[in-house]
Design a protein that fits this description.
Blueprint (H helix, E strand, L loop, with lengths): L4 H18 L8 E9 L2 E4 L1 H10 L4 E12 L5 E11 L5 E12 L2 E11 L5
Parallel strand pairs: 1-6
Antiparallel strand pairs: 1-2, 3-4, 4-5, 5-6
């Protein structure tokens, strides 16, 4: 089976951010017990810890993606990197970068690794 990494990446990112902005609890099916997330330097392991962290973040969010770049990995996973803007509450938009390593499990894609960083510049 041939995997189109670009198609997987765009479809995944579109679903992820639309769901994140509407109801983060529905993202639980994307993670497994060995999933690892690094969020602004904080490392979390496991589906429950990741979802608990995502639910603890500001609830009124809107993601706008600028770039979605994807690569097929040697083990038929997909690496996805997203750049975009995140707006939450009444704050001005912030640029962000988020990377995902996706692996196919039982005919669906799961997130094994996720790294998120706001692009903040300090003078």
């Amino acid at each position: 089976m041939s995997i189109n990494a670009d198609s997987v990446g765009v479809q995944f990112a579109t679903y992820y951010y639309e769901t994140y902005d509407k109801d983060r609890s529905k993202l639980e099916s994307l993670f497994v017990d060995v999933s690892t997330m690094t969020f602004e330097g904080e490392r979390l392991i496991g589906k429950k810890n990741i979802i608990d962290k995502l639910k603890s973040l500001p609830s009124n969010t809107m993601h706008v993606t600028s770039n979605i770049d994807s690569q097929l990995t040697v083990d038929n996973g997909v690496f996805v990197q997203v750049n975009g803007q995140l707006k939450f509450d009444n704050d001005s938009p912030h640029y962000f970068t988020e990377s995902f390593y996706l692996k196919q499990e039982k005919n669906s894609w799961v997130v094994l690794n996720l790294v998120f960083r706001l692009s903040l510049h300090h003078n």
